[in-house]
């Protein structure tokens, strides 16, 4: 099993990350609230990652839909075409190995979505309906890093001993 995306994004950016679990638990799962958070984060151009590997989806099903299980992906965009039944997420496989297709993403819908973000399968990107996204992805990690924020860092040096300054 791979590492923790939350930890990776935090180490990369130096800022805290929000982790949203997508697997049903005792907590109330509100997909509309999560969708709104995802849309807001995309509009703010925050770094967003997602992980596949739900416990209730078999390895065979992941292979059948061409999404790697226990794998990290980035989310490039989220968009709603008119109403809540037409929500889509643009996911990118950094290794360009995923070859996901679904009937809900018709050619006419894909044309409209490409106006939002022209990323295509040659760079490992694919549009997936929100309903199917919730089926195959186990978490979303959102970095709070914003490149427009003022950043102050102190230059330091490493020493051989914790008692040296």
From TrEMBL:
<dbReference type="InterPro" id="IPR001300">
    <property type="entry name" value="Peptidase_C2_calpain_cat"/>
</dbReference>
<dbReference type="GO" id="GO:0004198">
    <property type="term" value="F:calcium-dependent cysteine-type endopeptidase activity"/>
</dbReference>
<comment type="similarity">
    <text>Belongs to the peptidase C2 family.</text>
</comment>
<protein>
    <recommendedName>
        <fullName>Calpain catalytic domain-containing protein</fullName>
    </recommendedName>
</protein>
<dbReference type="GO" id="GO:0006508">
    <property type="term" value="P:proteolysis"/>
</dbReference>
<dbReference type="InterPro" id="IPR038765">
    <property type="entry name" value="Papain-like_cys_pep_sf"/>
</dbReference>
<dbReference type="GO" id="GO:0005737">
    <property type="term" value="C:cytoplasm"/>
</dbReference>
<dbReference type="InterPro" id="IPR022684">
    <property type="entry name" value="Calpain_cysteine_protease"/>
</dbReference>
<dbReference type="Pfam" id="PF00648">
    <property type="entry name" value="Peptidase_C2"/>
</dbReference>
<feature type="domain" description="Calpain catalytic">
    <location>
        <begin position="1"/>
        <end position="146"/>
    </location>
</feature>
């Amino acid at each position: 099993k791979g590492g923790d995306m939350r930890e990776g994004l935090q180490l990369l950016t130096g800022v805290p990350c929000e982790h949203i679990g997508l697997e049903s638990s005792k907590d109330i799962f509100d997909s509309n609230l999560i969708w709104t958070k995802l849309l807001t984060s995309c509009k703010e151009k925050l770094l967003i990652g997602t992980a596949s590997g739900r416990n209730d989806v078999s390895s065979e099903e992941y292979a059948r839909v061409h999404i790697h299980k226990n794998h990290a992906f980035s989310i490039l965009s989220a968009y709603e075409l008119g109403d809540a039944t037409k929500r889509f997420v643009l996911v990118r496989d950094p290794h360009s190995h995923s070859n996901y297709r679904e009937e809900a993403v018709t050619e006419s819908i894909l044309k409209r979505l490409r106006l939002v973000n022209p990323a295509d399968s040659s760079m490992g990107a694919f549009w997936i309906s929100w309903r199917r996204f919730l089926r195959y992805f186990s978490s979303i990690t959102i970095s709070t890093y914003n490149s427009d924020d003022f950043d102050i860092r102190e230059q330091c040096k490493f020493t051989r001993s914790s008692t040296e300054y």
